């Protein structure tokens, strides 16, 4: 039993923790062995974390898969993820100068970072309501995978790219939509999906499947392999993802309106877009996952 409940991290330890597609500095407040509620994961090691500079209302229990040791390699990974994050501005090239000017630059950068953290904590929470029938789908999805050890058959048809194309086609004759904003939103959904799937949208039991399917589809993006089940999981995360952007309120409102419309369309067409049955994982697959 002691081995089964061995914890990788300890209380009061500083770690890096995934929140969305990015890594943030966090402190572990408590440790436990528990079943985390959907959509977080399975029974296992869990940690109550506080993100540095964030309100306490953002404190949350996370599975071990979302936490990383605070070391040079993982700090480099944090920087790499931040650099590739959608909409991130390019860094200003470094210039030569005195040590004094360099120190002033570091202080300004630190002050700017603190200001951004304070700005984030003051921002109101953004809500993207999920229709009840799609919430039920999310719960069924979680139970099928984490409890019954079933899998979404891949590649999916329709995949995320095809779903977004179907939605786009359904709106061709609709008036009053800004085509530029409309196209940008759909492109943004696809971009977020491709960047978030591997780090944010998969349950532990699906990770081996992800490794296998990527090996067999090296020339394709995740949005060309996965479908509506995983796309729904992205919509659950959108409020947090939007909160980390620098969009103004008008842009946020326009984005939210479009996301809500996509969800309503998915609800209306759920029989065509979402699975009613999952496939049983083979004994060989289960042995690999449990090893």
TrEMBL record:
Q: Does the keyword Nucleus apply?
A: yes
Keywords for this protein = Chromatin regulator, Nucleus, Transcription, Transcription regulation
Q: Which SMART domains match?
A: CHROMO
Q: Where is the Chromo domain?
A: 23-83
Against Gene3D superfamilies, the record matches this protein to: 2.30.30.140, MRG domain
Region described as Disordered: spans on this chain: 78-122
Where is this chain's protein located in or outside the cell? Nucleus
Assign the protein's first listed, main location to one coarse class.
nucleus
**Pfam family for this entry, one:** MSL3_chromo-like
Biased-composition ranges, Basic and acidic residues, are 110-122
Q: What PANTHER family does the record tag this protein with?
A: MORTALITY FACTOR 4-LIKE PROTEIN, MSL COMPLEX SUBUNIT 3
Give the similarity note: Belongs to the MRG family.
The name under which this protein is listed is Chromatin modification-related protein EAF3
State the organism named in the record. Linnemannia gamsii
């Amino acid at each position: 039993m002691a081995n089964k409940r061995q914890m990788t991290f300890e209380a009061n330890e500083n770690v890096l923790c995934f929140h969305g597609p990015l890594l943030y500095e966090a402190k572990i407040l408590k440790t436990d062995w528990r079943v985390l509620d959907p959509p977080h994961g399975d029974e296992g090691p869990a940690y109550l974390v506080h993100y540095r500079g964030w309100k306490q209302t953002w404190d949350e229990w996370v599975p071990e898969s979302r936490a990383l040791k605070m070391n040079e390699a993982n700090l480099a990974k944090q920087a790499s993820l931040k650099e590739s994050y959608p909409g991130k501005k390019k860094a200003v090239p470094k210039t030569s100068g005195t040590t004094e000017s360099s120190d002033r630059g570091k202080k300004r950068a630190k002050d700017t970072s603190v200001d951004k953290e304070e700005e984030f904590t003051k921002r109101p929470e953004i809500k993207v309501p999920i229709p009840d029938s799609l919430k039920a789908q999310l719960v069924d999805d979680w139970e099928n995978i984490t409890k019954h050890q079933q899998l979404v058959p891949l590649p999916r048809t329709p995949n995320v790219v095809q779903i977004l194309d179907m939605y786009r086609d359904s709106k061709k004759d609709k008036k009053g939509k800004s085509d530029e904003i409309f196209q940008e939103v759909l492109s943004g959904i696809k971009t977020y999906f491709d960047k978030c799937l591997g780090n944010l949208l998969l349950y532990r039991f699906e990770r081996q499947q992800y490794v296998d399917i990527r090996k067999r589809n090296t020339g394709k993006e995740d949005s060309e392999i996965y479908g509506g089940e995983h796309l729904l999981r992205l919509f659950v995360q959108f409020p947090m993802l939007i909160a980390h952007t620098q969009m103004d309120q008008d842009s946020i409102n326009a984005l939210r309106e479009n996301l809500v419309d996509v969800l309503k369309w998915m609800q209306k067409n759920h029989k065509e877009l979402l699975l009613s049955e999952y496939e049983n994982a083979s004994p060989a697959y289960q042995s690999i996952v449990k090893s």
